[in-house]
Specification:
Layout (H helix, E strand, L loop, with lengths): L1 H21 L12 E2 L12 E7 L4 H16 L4 E7 L7 H12 L5 H12 L8 H10 L4 H8 L2 H16 L7 E4 L3 E3 L1 H7 L6 H33 L1
Parallel strand pairs: 2-3
Antiparallel strand pairs: 1-5, 2-4, 4-5
Helix pairs in contact: 2-4, 2-9, 3-7, 8-9
């Protein structure tokens, strides 16, 4: 009986260890490390994988993740097309969203300026809640105030903002930061941490999330390769 008891304990421990290894971020599990969209969305990035971040300048967690994510995207540039979508969960967030899409439309939104906006809002507590406050800010960073104001108030930027809101609904975005891989998989530091019931620092969550993202990108690449082969055979 004693031997049988210890064998049972050993079997349970081995099973637990195997499960933990199987559910590692390098081998991400659905509904644990990531979720799958109910309706996959089409992408238009050729052989590369689309990686899209939903974010908001109001979000401290987006700010904390920004540098790590930007560096990851730079290293993965041969494999991915990285995009950002500025969310609007309430009308108070519209000025930030308009600022993002105005700078994007003017081709002025470098990674450096993007991060400076985060720093202004999250660290320096600069008020960027009104049009004039935003105009003052961008002018201080070398952007032509008049041209920016014209684009900021344009129908085109309004359209971009409306499209972003539509995408929030389509991609089932309820919080940020949120990462979409290849129009199918959805993950974030919060998902990775809670799914594995890990007690991690925010920096550790970022590291684990990038491992999940690496694996999901690799998985999407394999699926695209199989799809291409199938298309060639069909011809």
């Amino acid at each position: 009986m004693i031997r049988l008891f210890y064998r049972l304990i050993a079997a349970v421990l081995v099973g637990m260890m195997a499960t933990a290894a199987f559910a590692s971020p390098a081998n991400p599990q659905k509904n644990v490390d990531y979720q799958v969209l109910k309706v996959p969305q089409p992408t238009n990035t050729g052989n590369k994988i689309e990686v899209m971040e939903f974010f908001g300048y109001f979000c401290p967690h987006c700010y904390a993740f920004d540098t790590t994510l930007t560096n990851w995207a730079r290293k993965q540039k041969k494999n991915i097309v990285f995009k950002r979508v500025a969310v609007k969960f309430s009308e108070s967030m519209e000025p930030h969203q308009r600022m993002f899409y105005t700078l994007s439309a003017m081709d002025e939104l470098t990674n450096e300026l993007h991060h400076k906006i985060f720093e202004a809002v999250q660290v320096q507590r600069v008020n960027l809640r009104t049009d004039e406050q935003i105009f003052d800010f961008v002018e201080k960073h070398g952007i032509d105030r008049k041209k920016f104001a014209e684009m900021y108030k344009s129908f085109y930027v309004k359209m971009l903002g409306n499209k972003a809101v539509e995408m929030q609904s389509t991609y089932e975005i309820e919080g940020v930061p949120m990462i979409i891989i290849d129009g199918k998989s959805l993950t974030s530091p919060a998902i990775v941490s809670s799914g594995n019931q890990m007690d991690l620092t925010e920096q550790e969550m970022h590291v684990q999330t990038l491992k999940v993202m690496d694996a999901l990108v690799a998985k999407a690449q394999k699926e695209k390769a199989v799809s291409r082969k199938g298309s060639k055979k069909a011809k």
